[in-house]
Amino acid sequence: MFIIIREEAQIIDKFRTTSIKYPLPCLTSPCWQAFLIHKEMLMRHYEITLIVHPDQSSQVTTMIEKYKELITSGKGIVHRDEDWGRKHLAYPINKIYKAHYLMMNIECDKDTLDKLNYNFRFNDAILRNLIISKSEAITEPSIMVAEAGKDSDKVKDQGKDKAKGQDSEKK
Fold first, then answer.
1. Residue 110 neighbours by CB distance under 10 Å
2. Which residues of 21-37 are buried (b: 16+ CB within 10 A; e: fewer)?
3. For 21, phi and psi rounded to 5 degrees?
4. Is the entire prediction scored with pTM above 0.70?
C-alpha cells in the first residue's frame, strides 16, 4: 500500500513539473461544489397562464392562494397575479365555450415549478395551463388588465354623461 501511494505522489509531482501552467480545476474542490450547488438552486422567472373550468370560478381565489403558498414555501416570489375573469374560448374544450383565465408571474426554482406543474396536471378544475420561461420579472399590469380598466372607465364616463343629460332635460 505504501508503494501505491508513493507512485501516486510521483505521478502528481510529474504533473506539477509539466509545462501546463493552468491545469483544469478539480470538480471535487469546495469552491466548485459550492458553484454546482448554487447552480441547482437557481431561481428563474416564469409566466403561468391558467384556464379554469367556469363552474369552479368561485374557488379561483382559494386556488390562487394555494399556489402562492406553494411558491413562497419553496422560497419563491410572486411578482404579479391577475384574474382576467370569464372569457370566450377560441374553440370549445370538453363542450365548454367560456372559461376563467388567470395569469401569474413568479420567480422560483425547478423543484417548485415541478410541484406546480404536477398540481396543474391533476387538478380537474384546470382545463389548460401554459408555463413560459422569462428573462426577467414582469411587474407592470398586462394588456388584458389595462384594456379592462379602460373599458370600465369608458362605461363610467358614459354613465356620467347620461346622468348629466337627464339632469339638463329635467331643468
1. 13
2. eeeeeeeeeeeeeeeee
3. -85, -35
4. no
Phi, psi dihedrals of residue 125, rounded to the nearest 5° = -75, -25
Residues 6+ apart with CB under 8 A from 70: 112, 115, 116, 119
- Are 88 and 50 in contact by the 8 Å Cβ rule? The answer is no
Q: Say if CB 83 and CB 141 are below 8 A apart.
A: no
φ, ψ of residue 92 to 5 degrees: the values are: -65, 140
**Partner residues linked to 80 by β-bridges:** 105
Grid cell in block for residue 114:
415541478
Q: How deeply is 40 buried, as exposed, middle or buried, from its count of CB atoms within 10 A (0-12, 13-18, 19+)?
A: exposed
Q: How far is CA 78 from CA 39, 52, 137, in A?
A: 21, 19, 9
- What's the CA gap between 127 and 61, in Å, rounded? 17
Write the pLDDT tens digit of every residue in 94-104: 999 999 999 99
> In whole angstroms, what is the distance from residue 148 CA to residue 84 CA?
9
pLDDT cut 70: percent of the chain above it? 64
